[in-house]
Amino acid sequence: MTNKHTLEKRGIRWNEYFIRSGLGLCTLSSVVTTGVIIYILVKESLDFFTEVPLMDFLFGTQWVPLFEPSSYGVLPLLWGTLVITVGAAFIALPVGLASAVYISEYASPKVRTIVKPLLELLAGIPTVVYGYFALTFVTPLLRSVFPGFNVFNALSGAIVVGIMILPTVATLSDNALRAVPDTLRQGAYALGATSFEVTTQVVVPTGLSGIMASFLLAISRAVGETMAVTLAAGATPSLSLSMQESIQTITAYIVQVSLGDTPAGGIAYKTIFAVAGLLFVITLALNTLSQWILSRYQAEYD
Amino acid sequence: MNPQTTPEASDSENPISIPENSVLDLQKVSISYSGNPAVNGVSFPIAEHKITSIIGPSGCGKSTLLRSLNRMNDFVDGVTLDGQILYMGQDLYGNDIDPVALRRRIGMVFQKPNPFPKSIYKNVAWGPSINGYIGSMDELVEQSLVQAALWEEVKDRLHESALGLSGGQQQRLCIARALAMSPDILLMDEPCSALDPISTAHIEDLLFELKSNYTIVIVTHNMQQASRASDYTAFLELGNLIEFGTTRQIFTVPQQKRTEEYVTGRFG
Ligand SMILES: Nc1ncnc2c1ncn2[C@@H]1O[C@H](COP(=O)(O)OP(=O)(O)OP(=O)(O)O)[C@@H](O)[C@H]1O
Ligand SMILES: [Mg+2]
Hints:
- The structure holds 2 protein chains of 2 kinds.
- Chain A is mainly α.
- Chain A has 12 helices and 2 strands, in the order H-H-E-E-H-H-H-H-H-H-H-H-H-H.
- The model of chain A has no long low-confidence stretch (mean pLDDT 89).
- Chain B has one domain (7-263): P-loop containing nucleotide triphosphate hydrolases (Rossmann fold).
- Chain B is 32% helix and 25% strand.
- The longest helix of chain B has 14 residues, at 197-210.
- The A-B interface holds A 109, 181, 183-194, 197, 201-202, 205-206, 300 and B 70, 72, 75, 77, 100-104, 107-108, 110, 112, 114-118, 126-127, 130-131, 163, 174, 177-178, 181.
- The structure holds adenosine-5'-triphosphate and magnesium ion.
């Protein structure tokens, strides 16, 4: 037996102790922050719902919180959010997926090394820039083709949010396609398949859960988008079916009240907590769903 | 990519035992990756309805050569091929050859089982269906799985995912998938290297069965497998064909010292 390595404790290792508690504090601070936010949201919303019945809020069709006679039906705001999100998804999902397929399956390595960072750059542009782009470019273009369009209109907002979330769809879907093992492509080619058949019938179905997750993440970004829609689509709560008119989304409403001179503490002010709570529930559901899909997808490949 | 025409190719090193009916004829085939040679001027024939094995130490160019036979190398950037490969008299790399159509006639089984993440049934049916197979798909699937000696094990779970099969079963599924295309030639790159001895024995038995209908080219590291299962053997080293002949010849009376050393396990 050697006694070079004793098994006795050498006393507390102080540096490790400090590092560990330092790291722990950092984690704790973000957990606490999230907790505080949720607490405030819940508390103020509950306050709000003592004055406005939940059913009136969820199913009311008039959103007039700031003037008398006031009305607190959130449907117009939900509708605005839905119009923007669905419109943006119509643009971003097909175009984003097609770009991902092109980058992953067809582009030469040279093209890919140029295009991929460009897309990632696009995803990093501040959203207010997209709003500015909508006001100064998309809307004038729309109005020159269809003179009936309002200066603030839903279509412009949907287009610009669609452009904004497109890189998210493209880069995340590309990652999902690239994760498909090359041996599957080879196996398919060896059966006399064309590139198109390999891509559409083997690669895309295999990467489908990753693609769906990218769709959901992009959609949840569209739901939570604020600046670009406020600038493009304006601030008129409406259940209108026409995309020529101004609408208001949940986020745009929050901005409007936060920036305005609504006195804190009043019922009008508390509305923003109620709608923020609703928004939180929607995006949480979308994110959870996409995480769940992604985790299933990883399990398939282990 | 542009093959030079060398019609006078003849196997001067191997005066004996040239198979009569060859379906594939390699003539001074050289292959390189972005200028780095991997195969140098290899010539030998592949006999119809026989098993030809390609053996040699790791990195000698066996897979490269095998993949050139159904143009799977087309997917690798920078690959160039010189010389000629004749498939029933036609230049495999000629301008009039459609590689997609060619791969329907020359199938391939890979080293690692690579079933699609689809059902067992769809794995087998996919190739024929994209190639416009008319006839009973159920029958074709059953017949292919029977030929691959997998039917009994999977007949009650045809619509379950192929990823739930064991490695050996997956490899037999990949063989069934290739057979469903009724190819003329089946290329196999170390099909047993990821398998246990029992699965390996299954697949070797299978090779014997398949021989009457298919021409098989198999790359293997396993000397017993080559000597048991194949009719002809090509021995490669550093991209050069050292010797080609009947398997019996190569394993009992090799003409080259290197061959003898390799097959008796003294190097490589
Ligand atoms: N995709 C590729 N790009 C560049 N070089 C390659 C590529 N594939 C193979 N090579 C090179 O070509 C040579 C032959 O490789 P190959 O895979 O054909 O050998 P092998 O005989 O099949 O070996 P093993 O028995 O290990 O599978 C090696 O030197 C290898 O490094
Ligand atoms: Mg190999």
